[in-house]
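Morning!

This is the sequence you dropped in the shared folder:
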Amino acid sequence: MPDTQSQSYSNHTRWDPPFHFFIMPVFVATVIVAVVHAIRWPGFHTAWTVLLSIAALMLVFKTRMYALRVQDRVIRLEERLRLANALSEPLRSRIGELSESQLIALRFASDDELESLVNETLTRKLSAKEIKQSIKNWRGDYLRV
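The structure's back. C-alpha cells below.
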C-alpha cells in the first residue's frame, strides 16, 4: 500500500519498521549478548555461539542487500526505458554515460524537468545527492522496500 504522504528530498528515505526496528536490533543485540557471554564464560560453545550469531546477522544483512540490489537493477532498467522515450537527441544517445546511482536518482525527476536535469547531470557530473537536491517537481517512488 503506497504511503499517503507526498515524497520529497527531505522524506524519501524508506524505513521498513519490521526490518529496521525489530529484526536488525534483535540480531545486533544477540551478537552483543553472545560476545558478553563468551567473555564471561570462555569456551568452545560460547565462541561457537558468537560465530553463529555473527553469521546470522550477516545473513539478515546480506538478504536485505540482495533485495535492494535487485530493486536497483529494475529501477535502472525502468529509467533507461523512460529516458529513451523522454529524451531527444543527442541526450538519448548519451544515456549509457549515466552511472547506476545517477539513473536511480533521476527516477524522482518529473518528466517536465527530466531533459534539463539529464543534461546538467552529464555536463556537471552530478552525484545522486546533487541530482535529488536539484529536482523541483518530485516524482515519488512509493514501491521501494
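Headline: The chain is about 65% helix and 0% strand.

More detail when I'm at my desk.
O.
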